[in-house]
Design goal:
By secondary structure, the protein is an alpha/beta fold. It has one domain: 3-Layer(aba) Sandwich (Rossmann fold). It is built from eight helices and five strands. It has a five-stranded parallel sheet with strand order 3-2-1-4-5, with helices on both faces. α2 links the parallel β1 (19-24) and β2. It is globular, with a radius of gyration of 16 Å. The N and C termini lie far apart (44 Å).
Length: 196
């Protein structure tokens, strides 16, 4: 489906066909509000791809909670390769390990995860991809959306631009997480952010 047709469908709520969206999920609590906003507009599948999360015990805890959200919402969840891509993630970010959070290391991390999401979406018949990353008040949505747009052009698949934290999105998703007893982590994910 061309991007032109995608745009027409996005603006036509009466259209019976829902675009197939692959939503990159960084963690369970960040997914709940975006899913609530988009589930009636798109045929969503969640994609948990996060080789940035360390240690593995923490990764498994976050994955388990993403699976819980999938069961509650009845929205399918696909898990990307963690062990295989772990070394690759460290190799690509190691030289940037001393930078503060929110700088080039984080941008590289966003790009790694969104590229994998876009490639999976393209290969598996999805029309559009997005990410839950913009719900965090600690992340710059303009940077994330710019990276998503760049990847969209590279792989010729539409990217859904969002700022999920607007209109109290972060507050809403945290409240929903509390109600559903979803685990809430206290650091972004990587070992470098624990250190900070």
């Amino acid at each position: 489906m061309s991007k032109k047709n995608c745009s027409k469908n996005l603006n036509n709520p009466d259209k019976l066909y829902k675009l197939k969206m692959l939503m990159h999920v960084c963690c369970a609590n960040c997914a709940i509000h975006p899913l609530n906003i988009l589930k009636d507009k798109f045929d969503i599948t969640m994609y948990f791809y996060n080789p940035n999360i360390h240690p593995e015990e923490e990764y498994q805890k976050r994955l388990s909670n993403a699976e819980k959200v999938s069961r509650i919402t009845k929205i399918p969840l696909i898990t990307g390769n963690y062990i295989h891509d772990l070394k690759k993630w460290f190799k690509l970010t190691e030289k940037l390990k001393d930078l503060p959070e929110g700088q080039e290391r984080c941008n590289k991390c966003f790009k790694i995860r969104l590229e994998k999401t876009a490639l999976f979406a393209k290969k598996n018949g999805f029309d559009i991809f997005t990410t839950t990353l913009t719900i965090s008040p600690h992340k710059n949505q303009q940077t994330i959306n710019a990276i998503g747009n760049e990847i969209s052009q590279k792989f010729d698949i539409s990217f859904f631009i969002a700022d999920f934290k607007k209109q109290d999105g972060f507050k809403k998703t945290m409240q929903l997480s509390k109600e559903l007893k979803i685990y809430r982590q206290n650091y972004c994910g990587c070992l470098y952010s624990i250190r900070k």
